[in-house]
Amino acid sequence: MAKILIIGAGFAGHTAALYLGSKIGRKHEVTVVSNRDVFSYLPSWVWVGVGHMKPEKTVFKLKPVYDRKNIRFVHAAVKEIHPDAGDQYVLADEVGSGRETRLDYDYLVIAPGPLLNFAGTPGLGPENGFTHSICSYPHAIKTRDAYLALCERMKKGEKVKIVIGTGHPMATCQGAAFEYIVNVHKDLVKKGLRDKADILWLSNEPALGDFGVNGVQIKRNGHMLRSEEFIKSVFNDHGIRYQIQTGVTKVEEGKIHWQNYEGEEGVTEFDFAMLIPQFKGQPFKYIGKDGSDIASKIVNPAGFVLVDGKYGLPYPELAQTPEAWPAKYQNPSYPNIYAAGIAFAPPGPISKPFTNKNNLAIAPAPPRTGMVSGTIGRVVAMNIIDAVNGREPSHHESMTEMVAACVASMGDSLWDGSAVTIVMRPVVPDRKKFHNEYGRDLFISHLEMGLSGAWMKFMLHHTFMWKFKARPGWTLIPE
Ligand SMILES: Cc1cc2nc3c(=O)[nH]c(=O)nc-3n(C[C@H](O)[C@H](O)[C@H](O)COP(=O)(O)OP(=O)(O)OC[C@H]3O[C@@H](n4cnc5c(N)ncnc54)[C@H](O)[C@@H]3O)c2cc1C
Questions:
Q1: Is the overall model pTM greater than 0.90, yes or no?
Q2: Are residues 243 and 198 in contact, defined by beta-carbon separation less than 8 angstroms?
Q3: Domain coordinates of the chain in residue numbers?
Q4: N or C: which end of the chain has fewer CB within 10 A?
Q5: Architecture, CATH, for domain 3-116+279-357+366-388
Q6: Hey, whose CA ends up nearest to atom 19 of ligand 1?
Q7: Quick one: which atom of ligand 1 is closest to the CA of 367?
Q8: The pLDDT value given to residue 409
Q9: pLDDT tens digit string along 199-223?
């Protein structure tokens, strides 16, 4: 009997667990260890942050689902990984008791999502700083409370400054921040308070609508339409000001310090700011048999797990080398270790990076969205099933092959809400396969805005909650 251990129960780890539990959970031991005992549907935290969805609606308990799917659940926070042959185990602290627990494995999936590195920007974040975040469950609730308190001030006639975007020169997840800014705009319009707020989009993107994926390009009626023009017209229509090519370097009470591409330094004042922090890998210790630190064999300096990618290529070369992107998500030093979701180390940025004259790199890191994370979770599960059955892992899907569909909410009302629906193939441009300057399949890539998107976004919430609860037919719903 093989022991398969999965760290993390998010889009990646939970998807891997459901496939493994369903397919081989009766014969083999499938265990999930997670520091939270619920699955969280993060995309709906955008609505939690404006008070339009109860936070409880975005989560459900994992254990009852795992009991149905032959998966053991351990509620604990992982701290150490001991990967050397003969004695492979993970050490974790049980949540509640704090007791240390040892979890042995034959196959390990590392899928603990990002460390939200607020410390990377002095003064950033809701705990030790002055800004808000919608990147965790408690943060989304705190953001909602702060936002609603701000609305009360506006109701009394006060004019306020709202800043939303990225809080680190190398932050990712611009899509979530974009959704949040347009939902804030819509909510203020509904409340009759929009004229009381100056709203600014502040981001590290090289161009509007870049989203860390080099933008989205589509062909419509024979003309090229780029997300840059599209987002610009949305912001202009909504009266949202924007400042891009900007890296936030420090935050003080009511003041955001930044540098831009030109190397200029500036300060932007705010009453309320939601800024996405830099993402890093979880700070696990990787310990060899002799007790030595063997982290460099498993993770890059940022803590992301090295897999079957080609690392170290300069950007111009990487942009022309789609095969540099990993496809099996298997660690080269320890082939029984896989990484899924945000935890795997991409070989480099997707958008063109930039370093200003003060040597500050202002470059969006590549996003690994929910769909990408779920897809990788499935690929990893299938490869482990191959290995457990004595076959060479044969499943692969690189981000240069994956289709990504994203519905960005712009107001949740089913009557006058809206959403941008984006379909892109592939997520990472493949200029060898698609012979256009964007490296994308222009027949499949699609960008649309309208009320139907709001319905789709609403349905996605319920469809994915169904899938992640492993209700009947869950495998028919694509990642
Ligand atoms: C506000 C917001 C909106 C978003 N909207 C969209 C969207 O519309 N579409 C889209 O595709 N993507 C969206 N994303 C991105 C998407 O949510 C992420 O890409 C996805 O959650 C990444 O999956 P993951 O499994 O790698 O990490 P996560 O989902 O973060 O899961 C990580 C898991 O690991 C656990 N964990 C962490 N540390 C430990 C530890 N030490 N020990 C044990 N367990 C641990 C966590 O509790 C969690 O269960 C959004 C993200 C945010 C923040």
A1: yes
A2: no
A3: 3-116+279-357+366-388
A4: N
A5: 3-Layer(bba) Sandwich (3.50)
A6: 369
A7: 19
A8: 76
A9: 999 999 999 999 999 998 887 777 8
